[in-house]
Amino acid sequence: MEFPKQFVWGAASSSYQTEGNRSGRGDSIWDEFCTRPGAIRNNETGDIACDGLRRFREDVRLLKQLGLSAYRFSLSWPRIFPDGRGEPNRAGLDYYDDLIDLLLAEGITPYVTLYHWDLPLALERQGGWRSRETALAFAEYAGFVARHFAGRVRHYCTLNEPQCFIGLGYGTGEHAPGVCLEGSELFACAANALLAHGLAVQVIRQKSEEPVQIGVASTGKLCYPLHDTAENRAAAERASFLAEGDRWWFSHTWFLDAILLGSLPPELQALANSIPQEDWAIIRQPLDFLGVNVYNGTQADERGECADRIPGFPRTALKWPVTPQVMRYGPRWLYRRYHLPMYITENGQSCNDRIFLDGKVHDPDRIDFLHRYLLELRECCAEGVPIKGYFHWSLTDNFEWNNGYDERMGLVYLHYPTQRRIVKDSAEWYARTAQTNGRLL
């Protein structure tokens, strides 16, 4: 048994987490946030990160060595437009030109994300996602990118995890820009992100020289049943799409219902006035695929309520629960609601990786994690859910946001003092899995 033919096997990264701050990049909200004492574990920054600007050729060689057919990465908005708008930065464009051209020369398809959380600081100082102007500036940036890379980039995600950059950035303040808003003020930020997405889809289609595939990368609560009964499955599916309480933002529904169904779920109707009526036609644009970032899920009982986890429940080094069953049920629920083919745009786990005396990095926990999750994903495909590909998060260890560099999620180990790359055991296992299209699972 294997995955569908033409299944895409890839790895993922993002700009701020890997590139470093060279080549004329303007400051982003994360550059400023990292200067705040205590905001980041060990007060670390992304100033160097994986030094991707200078070492991208080595990283592309690693992708080729692993036999992966696709690379999902994000463009740094402030690297292309240091102030968010205005004159583009030629050095930044040269970097992305070189990266994309090299990927294509090696037979690796670029999957480009336009926004992975690194908002230009200049725009944040004018209101950031609280301001409608940010959505308009994003559309200008998206149109420029689509025109510049026309014919070379054919797969775009507009936004990565709006649930997180809105909820954690403007709700709890745990992420940049560290703002704490509530209620209608917070939802106004969400409304501007929705508008930015819709405008970007429109302009990408207008500026691309040939047809392109456009989607988003969403995350949020997904449930799987405690018992595999019809009643429990139905309850888990319902629970997956409830946007409740102060953490309504960690739901797929406020974003995906809006952009794909043209409405908000009933429990959020009171906030719908934040969206001008004329914006709905812009927000709801036809998409080609749905990207889903899946790390873990919630076990729900027959009433749709969370089932207690027993002491000793398996967890990653980041303390996230290990719940492979969500990879079978979550995409099924999403497909039944939104009817779009899907990519798993992120999945992986943090481990306490280290270099052993033999000079290698042995990470059996990550191999076990991937084996279990991919088995469930293969079952999901066999049940008829159109999953088009899988991107491991991440290609290399990198700057894991407010957790700094302690959390290692890469297939490739980064020795940060020297920037040496070491292929982990899990990378070799993943390469064999990809090369056999999942038959060895």
Explained architecture:
The model has no long low-confidence stretch (mean pLDDT 98). The chain has one domain: Glycosidases (TIM Barrel). Strand 9, helix 14 and strand 10 form a beta-alpha-beta unit. The strands form three sheets. Strands 1-2-3-4-5-7-9-10 form an eight-stranded parallel barrel, surrounded by four helices. Strands 6-8 form a two-stranded parallel sheet. It contains 15 helices and twelve strands. The radius of gyration is 21 Å and the shape is globular. It has 441 residues and is α/β, with parallel strands linked by helices. Helix 3 runs parallel beside helix 5 and helix 13 runs parallel beside helix 14.
Sum up the structure in keywords:
441 residues; alpha/beta; TIM Barrel; eight-stranded parallel barrel; two-stranded parallel ribbon; 38% helix; 13% strand
Total strands: 12
Mean pLDDT: 98
Biggest pleated-sheet summary? 8 strands, parallel, barrel
CATH class category label: Alpha Beta
CATH homology superfamily: Glycosidases
Q: Which helices and strands, and how do they pair?
A:
Blueprint: E1 8-12, H1 15-18, H2 29-33, H3 52-65, E2 70-74, H4 77-80, H5 90-105, E3 109-115, H6 121-124, H7 132-148, E4 155-160, H8 162-171, H9 183-207, E5 213-218, E6 223-225, H10 230-240, H11 253-261, H12 280-283, E7 290-293, E8 298-300, H13 326-338, E9 342-346, H14 364-382, E10 387-393, E11 412-415, E12 420-423, H15 425-435
Parallel strand pairs: 1-2, 1-10, 2-3, 3-4, 4-5, 5-7, 6-8, 7-9, 9-10
Antiparallel strand pairs: 11-12
Helix pairs in contact: 3-5, 7-9, 8-9, 9-11, 13-14, 14-15
